[in-house]
Amino acid sequence: MDIRLLVIGMLIPLLALKLSLNEAVIFKFTNVVCENHNKTWITVHWCRLRAISRNKTTFNLNVTLNYPVDHPVNIRGQLLQKANGYKPWLFSANIDACRFMKRAYNPLAILVFKLFKEFSNFNHSCPYVGPIIIQDFYLRVDKIPNAMPTGDYLLVLAFSFSKKPQITTKVYFVFVEDLL
Ligand SMILES: *[C@@H]1O[C@H](CO)[C@@H](O)[C@H](O)[C@H]1NC(C)=O
Ligand SMILES: *[C@@H]1O[C@H](CO)[C@@H](O)[C@H](O)[C@H]1NC(C)=O
Ligand SMILES: *[C@@H]1O[C@H](CO)[C@@H](O)[C@H](O)[C@H]1NC(C)=O
Ligand SMILES: *[C@@H]1O[C@H](CO)[C@@H](O)[C@H](O)[C@H]1NC(C)=O
C-alpha cells in the first residue's frame, strides 16, 4: 500500500476530530481550593472561581507572600482523573520553580504555565515577595496540544519552600468532547 495514502487516510479523520473538538468542547474549571499551610508566610486573600457562562469559569487568585520566597522552591504537580475517586493519571512531576523561571523545562509544567502565564504576574525570576495574582484565567482548548478523554480532572500543585510544604492548590476542571 502507498505509504502517502495511508498517512493521508489516517490524518483526515484526526483533523476532522480535532476540528469538531475545537467547535464543541467544554474545558472549564469546576472548583478550586487553596490550602495555606503557613499563615505567617502566606496570606490568601482569595482563591475562587467566577462563573461567566455555562461553559466558562475564571480562576482568580490573590495571595501575598509576607516574606521573600527564594530558591529552592519545589512544586510537586499531579494530574488526576476522576474514576471512583481521583486516581493518578498520566502526569506527576517535581519541579524546581526558580530553575523553571530561568529556563522552562518539564512538559507538564510548560503546558500549565502556558495556559495561565498571561493572566498572572508570575513571569519573573526568583525571589518572589508581595502580591501573587492570577486574574480572569480561563481554560482554552487551543492551548493544549491534544484533546484529552472526556472526564473530570484534578491538578494538585504542592509548593514547598524552606524545605516544608507551604501552600497546596487544587484545581478541578472538566473536559467534555462533544462529537455530535
Ligand atoms: C460557550 O458559551 C458561549 C457564550 O455563552 C457560546 O457563544 C459558545 O458557543 C459556547 N461554546 C460551546 C462550545 O458550547
Ligand atoms: C512559616 O513561615 C515563617 C515566615 O517565613 C517561617 O519563619 C516558618 O519557619 C514557617 N513555618 C514552617 C513550618 O515552615
Ligand atoms: C489583593 O488583595 C489585597 C488585600 O485585600 C488588595 O489590597 C489588592 O488590591 C488585591 N489585588 C488585586 C489585584 O485585586
Ligand atoms: C517572561 O516574559 C518575557 C517577555 O514577555 C519572555 O521573553 C520570557 O520568556 C518569559 N518567561 C517565561 C518563564 O515565560
TrEMBL record:
Keywords: Signal. Residues 1-24 form the signal peptide. InterPro entries: DUF1091 (IPR010512). Pfam families: DUF1091. This is MD-2-related lipid-recognition domain-containing protein. It comes from Drosophila virilis. The gene is Dvir\GJ21291.
